[in-house]
């Protein structure tokens, strides 16, 4: 009797090396494009460079992505915009307190985005978005608005549960966004926004920002001065 593995190989044979290479090309192109966009910026990156770095022809690149603009949009979706379904599902499943959720949110953002090359996309849009309004609007639609909506849900959850004081949520979300943007600028701007490259620990920075957002700077009654 044939083994289960042999039956799988018979009816679902592995693609040839050439076929596997073809299937892998979109992912390789997106990875190469992310590298170059973060390294050089959108305007300075040429499509030919992306193709060369991915090891394909320019014609192959345009087969998948008809223009550099479409390539950039695909990079944004792959690395940022497409992840909000996953993050909203985590919000729905979270069982801890809302302060714990906020800490989790900021730390997970650093692990999954801030530490990666994808964080350079935000810095890129801040520096070049004014020159490419269509891409800037696309970034707002796919990344900024879904991110703000998720933060609104987190803060509203805390208010509804009596864990947070009532606040102007539309403005309060920037108390969470601002530290994240600062870390991206610190990481992708030669770390010039701090006094020395070794004086900022991102994890400690996030923990401090969480404490400040949750508790403020003022001494609370009953706490040691």
UniProtKB/TrEMBL annotation:
<feature type="DNA-binding region" description="H-T-H motif">
    <location>
        <begin position="46"/>
        <end position="65"/>
    </location>
</feature>
<protein>
    <submittedName>
        <fullName>TetR/AcrR family transcriptional regulator</fullName>
    </submittedName>
</protein>
<dbReference type="GO" id="GO:0000976">
    <property type="term" value="F:transcription cis-regulatory region binding"/>
</dbReference>
<keyword id="KW-0804">Transcription</keyword>
<feature type="domain" description="HTH tetR-type">
    <location>
        <begin position="23"/>
        <end position="83"/>
    </location>
</feature>
<keyword id="KW-0238">DNA-binding</keyword>
<dbReference type="Pfam" id="PF16859">
    <property type="entry name" value="TetR_C_11"/>
</dbReference>
<dbReference type="InterPro" id="IPR011075">
    <property type="entry name" value="TetR_C"/>
</dbReference>
<dbReference type="GO" id="GO:0003700">
    <property type="term" value="F:DNA-binding transcription factor activity"/>
</dbReference>
<dbReference type="InterPro" id="IPR009057">
    <property type="entry name" value="Homeodomain-like_sf"/>
</dbReference>
<keyword id="KW-0805">Transcription regulation</keyword>
<dbReference type="InterPro" id="IPR050109">
    <property type="entry name" value="HTH-type_TetR-like_transc_reg"/>
</dbReference>
<dbReference type="InterPro" id="IPR036271">
    <property type="entry name" value="Tet_transcr_reg_TetR-rel_C_sf"/>
</dbReference>
<dbReference type="InterPro" id="IPR001647">
    <property type="entry name" value="HTH_TetR"/>
</dbReference>
<dbReference type="Pfam" id="PF00440">
    <property type="entry name" value="TetR_N"/>
</dbReference>
């Amino acid at each position: 009797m044939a083994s289960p593995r042999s039956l799988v190989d018979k009816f679902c044979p592995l693609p040839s090396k050439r076929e596997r290479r073809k299937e892998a090309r979109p992912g390789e192109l997106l990875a190469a494009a992310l590298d170059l966009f973060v390294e050089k910026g959108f305007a300075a990156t040429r499509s030919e460079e992306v193709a060369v770095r991915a090891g394909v022809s320019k014609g192959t690149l345009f087969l998948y992505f008809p223009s550099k603009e479409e390539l950039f949009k695909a990079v944004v979706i792959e690395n940022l915009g497409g992840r909000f379904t996953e993050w909203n599902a985590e919000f729905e499943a979270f069982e801890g307190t809302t302060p714990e959720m906020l800490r989790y949110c900021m730390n997970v953002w650093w692990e999954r985005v801030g530490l990666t090359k994808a964080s350079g996309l935000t810095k890129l849009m801040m520096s070049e978005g004014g020159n490419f309004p269509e891409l800037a609007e696309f970034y707002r639609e796919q990344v900024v608005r879904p991110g703000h909506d998720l933060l609104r849900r987190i803060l509203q959850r805390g208010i509804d549960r009596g864990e947070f004081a009532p606040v102007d949520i539309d403005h309060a979300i920037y108390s969470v966004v601002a530290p994240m943007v600062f870390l991206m600028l610190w990481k992708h701007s030669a770390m010039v926004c701090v006094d020395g490259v070794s004086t900022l620990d991102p994890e400690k920075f996030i923990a401090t920002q969480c404490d400040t957002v949750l508790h403020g700077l003022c001494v609370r009654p009953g706490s040691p001065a």
